[in-house]
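Hello,

Following up on my earlier ticket. Below are the two sequence lines again, exactly as submitted.
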Amino acid sequence: MSSNVSLVETVKKQYAFKMKAYIDAFSSLVGIQFIAFLFSLGGGSSSMGTSDGYHFELKFYSADLVIIFTFIWIFVTAITITTKPYRNQDFTFVTNRMSSSLSNILFLLSASLLGAFTAVLSRFLIQTVAYFLLKEDLYIASVMTSEMMIGITVSLLYVFWISSIGYFVGTLVQIHKGFALLIPVIVIGSLFYDGFMQRYAMLLILFQFYFLESSMVLFAIKTLITTAVLFFASIAILNRMEVRR
Amino acid sequence: MNVIECNGLTKAYFRKNVLNGLTFTIEENKITGLIGRNGVGKTTLVKILAGLIKETSGEVRVFEQHPFNNLYTSANTILVDDQMFFPPALQLHELLEVAQSFYPNWDMELAQRLLQYFSFDPSHYHQTLSKGRTSTFNMIIGLASRCSLTILDEPTTGMDEAVRKDFYRALMKDYLAHPRTILISSHHLNEIEDILEDVLLIKNGKTLLHESISDLKEWAIALQGASTVVQKWLVERNCIFQRQVGKDTLYAVVRDDFTKENKEEALRGGVEFIPVKASDLCVYLTNDTKGGIDDVFER
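Thanks for your patience. The regenerated structure is below:
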């Protein structure tokens, strides 16, 4: 009567279960992107000038803010799914720690894909609304599908990378609640300290390593390796964790 | 085949041993009652068996495998308690579908009929259920999953009398149709003794007694009579429980190792022999003092 189950099969089932059960994460994505969309209608980084008696004002309508809000969203979502109620509901059904983590990562990948896709495409919505409702004269650089694809891919890499940071931070907090205090203190503290010492912030250098990479391939390698290392570390830590309901 | 084997199982929380060298085995397709006082380590034990927590030392085998972090034991074991956590975003009927996708032996028809019988609204959410309703729903999941090892930890918490009776009857019927190993921990032995085959009595994190329920009913006997006479019979016997009844009458429970001649002699001396109910015996055995709560007041 006892039945055998495989890891792959269990991960698939857990993944299908999580796509349904974590529906709140997707509704909050809609909410947060809508807020970012409203902010974007103000027009980012505008510049004004007067020339030959003409006054001109230049505004940029882009999806930048939506993408940044999406980063925040995936970070929070990744931390949330490491918390106790989320871990415990896995164990109501069939799982071990490995399948629980792997299905979480698959879920984060799907969420990242959806987030990146909608964030990049939101640019068209913002520009359309600016044109029709705000009556702005629009000058759009022609959009090529290939550029669009690169935009989505890069955003996906960023979002997935941030999800791995969030997942790792969440995992650390699960080992000891002290990390919830320690991590913000280290991050913000290092900024203040570097400012006090009047030198370039370490954190910025770290971010520039990823953000200022001009080669697409190198960028992809950097983020993917970091993502893999962080997820691997989280799996290794969570694998020893007991479930106390 | 032994479904559960524990050998010197120990679990410590903050250097305090909750389980202290627990040793027992449970055979396939038996219904065993896990009995013990509050805080004796019943919940800790079932969590180890379900693979939720890891033992500190000793050996534990479920289906001949180590249960912690084990997919095989997870698929064939279900732990039902009042802390089962279900995703708040899913309705009750969706939860049944999720459970169906996970448990290979799941019986959807049974689950739905039970849901209907206990008049659940399938579109409700688990979080909105009351305590007794939560236990009832969790029990439905536990029964319908038909896991080879079904562990019920205080399954009747908050249930009313009628539902409790229905639940035990449903458990019995489903067990007869689909035999499996069932472990029930409960405070109410008198309620469950009719469906149990074995009783595993735990005290201070150790196995105190592991007997079949019929043996347990004959394990001890109570003597009642004039204090002086009863006291005489208690000499060289380990008295499990004693209580003063009236002014000069003593009620004492001892292990039933009296020979026929002994009994006749005692009867002539005016001592009455009374059978001890299994549930009472378990309470007496797990008491730390012989007189129970009376000892506190007699100073």
